[in-house]
Design goal:
145 residues; mainly alpha; 0% strand; elongated
């Protein structure tokens, strides 16, 4: 049983997928708080916007590790989400800071439904990714000499 760079990449991907899973769950809870008027849009956007760039950074970091260790399958599985995140950030509303959530438009029904669907899709994606990386980590540790 050898600990290789591929095993390290899967271990980092496993841990960061878990963190990103919690980010997606937090996004779903935050949108639900907006729908039920527990928080106002400015407070909610101020709590969601600081998480956008770290989320994108973590996703890119472990995908660069997959690319460096030569695991093109894991990289290709994450490529659609990376492309979606880049598209979403490039088409973000004009706001003062970093982030994609605008307090003036977040209460629109279409915007809220988009954020809810995005949160659920990311949650499912990161949950499946978590178990995939766990399987690949175990497989890599068992098969390497």
């Amino acid at each position: 049983m050898a600990f290789t760079f591929a095993a390290l990449a899967y271990l980092v991907g496993l841990v960061l997928a878990c963190v990103l899973l919690f980010f997606a769950i937090y996004q779903i809870i935050a949108v639900d708080e907006l729908k039920t008027d527990y928080k106002n849009p400015i407070e909610q956007c101020n709590s969601l916007n600081p998480l956008v760039l770290p989320e994108y950074g973590m996703l890119l970091f472990y995908n660069v590790l997959f690319l460096l260790c030569g695991d093109l399958v894991s990289f290709a599985l994450n490529l659609p989400l990376i492309a979606y995140n880049v598209m979403r950030y490039m088409n973000r509303p004009v706001i003062a800071g970093f982030g994609i959530y605008d307090p003036t438009t977040i209460m629109n029904t279409s915007q809220l439904s988009l954020i809810v669907k995005e949160g659920w899709a990311k949650m499912v994606f990161f949950l499946v990714s978590f178990f995939y990386y766990l399987y690949c980590l175990i497989y890599t540790l068992i098969t390497e000499n």
